Structure formats: C-alpha cells, structure tokens
Predict the structure.
Amino acid sequence: MTRTAVLAGLVAGAASAAGLRLLRSAAPTGATTWDRTNHAGATVTLLEGPAWVAGSSAGVLAGAAVAGSLAGSAATAGAAGAVGAVVAGAAAGPGAAAPLVATVASGALGALDDLAGDAGSKGLKGHLGALARGEVTTGAVKVLGLGVTGLLTAALVDRPRRAAAHGGLAAATRRGPAGAARAGSCVTSRTAVPTALDTLVGGAVVAGSANLLNLLDLRPGRALKASLIAGVLLATDPRSEASAGAAVGAAAGLLGPDLAGESMLGDTGANSAGALLGTALLQRSGRRGRLVALAVLAGLTLASERVSFTKVIESTPGLRELDALGRPSVARTAR
C-alpha cells in the first residue's frame, strides 16, 4: 500500500471506530431503531453501517488531500460529516467526488432498506419480480438507485480522463498537423479515453459490487474481511489509493465488534463498502478490466440466486478457516 493509502486507512479506521461508539451512545433516531435479531437469536446493531459511511468518507478526503486532489479540505470533512464530505468533494474535483458519491449515496439507499425494508421480498430476483407485478418495494428502489449511483460515479471517474485527452489534442493541434495526428491517435484509443460504453459498464460494476458485498454480510466479519482483501489489492495503484485505502481502514476499524457479533454492516454499510471498492476498481481500470469485473459480478450474483454462499464457504477448506478466523465460537453461528 502507498503512503496515501495508509493515511486514508488510518483516518478511516479511527473515524469509523469512533463513529460506531458515538452512534451507539447517541443515535439520532435512537439506538434500538437499528437493532435486529439474527437467526441465532442474538441482538446486533446495524449502526456499524452509518459508522462505515462516515469513516470511509473521512478517509477518502484525507487521502485525496495528501495526493493533492483535495488540498486543505480534510479538516472540513471531519467537521461537516458525510453529507458535508460529498459537497466538499464535489466542489473540489471529481477525484474525490466519485468515491464520495458512491459511498454516501449507496449508504443512504441501504439505510432506506435497513429502516423501512419489506421482508416479504428477498434478493435481486425477488425485488425485480415484485416490481414486475407492480409492487414497489424498498429493495426495488434501492436496486434502481444503485444503478443511477453507479452511472454517476462512473461518469465522475471518466470525466477527467476525457478532459485530459481532449485538452492534449487541443494543445497538440496548436503545434501543427504532425502534433495533432500523434495526439489524435491517443484520443481515439479505446483504452486512453473512456467512451459512453465504458461509463455504462463502469456504472454496472459499481452497482454490482454494492450488491455482491451485501450478499456476504451473513456471518460476523465476512464482508469486512472481503473488503480488507479487495482493498489491499486495489490500493497498489496511485489512481485508486485513496478510495481503496479508506475501504481497508474502515473495515479494520469495525472488524472487532463485527467479529464479536455485536454489530454488522447491514445494507447501509455493505452497499456503501461494495460501491467504494467498485469505484476504486474503475479508477484503475480500462474497458477490458471493467468488462471482466462485470462478468465476474454478474456470474456471482446469478449464482447467489441458486447456491448458498455460506454453504460453499463452509464446505471449502481454506475458505472455511478464513471465514471463521478471529470469530469467537459463540458468534460463529450468528447472523
């Protein structure tokens, strides 16, 4: 991990852990509003989700400030909170705006499902089936909202690449026909300049990532471990270091209470975490990488409608031990 990723992670970890403690003691809507009973009969809080959103947003801003994308606004983020972070990021530039929009908007859509969700429809197939029957569930609203969020995020990621490429072409044109010809070959390159198709695929990747991580939030620590692994891998590229570093830090900061079965990400945190990781992938990928990611996400999502991820994990050596690592025996059957 780069220095920027490490700083983003440290800020996100500290902010998310502190946020969870604060929310559990003084939740705006009352802490019990976020309490749920898992299938093992234990009570867990979903306040880990809002803590993730706030902590990872602070981490993104801190990382962007160090990288020079958002100079001087990290302190503003700490004071303004998650909503202020989006405003600050959007005003400062698309480098920070894209991960912030993905994180906060996906978290808000997840919170809608957490607090007002209809338990009658489950999974992507269930929500889309209800929508086909004319029933608008909170899950269907979330699915559509994640699609819009993904497209907006991808557009924010791709916009500076297009601007840089076309700016280079304009400058080269002023240098004469030879310079214009050389620059034109770069601008028309599919890997250099994102097209509308690239943005569309990127939006699907962000939405699919948000959905997939939510499917993993069924056992203590599972979704956060997945976030840690994916984040570390994505944090090796300077283009995605702030986003990925923030995801790693927020996951590390909340892993303890999650493993203990005291709290869980819920839709709020899992959708937000998946969207942030998806954004980090877009920041470092061209068309080929996005298409591969979308194919994997689509395959896993379709498989989840027929196969239990928990059964697969528990029957696979290596995955089973990794899944249980750090989880107290009393919490291993929780969620």
